[in-house]
Amino acid sequence: MYAVWYPLQKGLPVRRFHRELRNAGVKKIFLCEINVVPDSGSNRLGGSGMIIINPPWQVDLKLEEALAWLVPLLDRGTGLPPRCEWLVGEGR
Description:
Layout: E1 2-9, H1 14-22, E2 29-35, E3 45-53, H2 59-74, E4 83-88
Antiparallel strand pairs: 1-3, 2-3, 2-4
């Protein structure tokens, strides 16, 4: 199992990072991201992301449940739900 944290800031190439991971041929990549600070146009930290490669069984369900509780407590006005999804599933 590998876990990689990354910041969510305006201008950072996160989509490219996700695309390169998808194309790397690695299976079972789970993604979670939260944005809790509204985009102010600056390069300030607005949220966090985490990629988990080969996560433990049902970690996706547990993280979705935890973030549904946590994000409203941290949110500073974005109103955005957490993003939790499989970037690459098991069968690829």
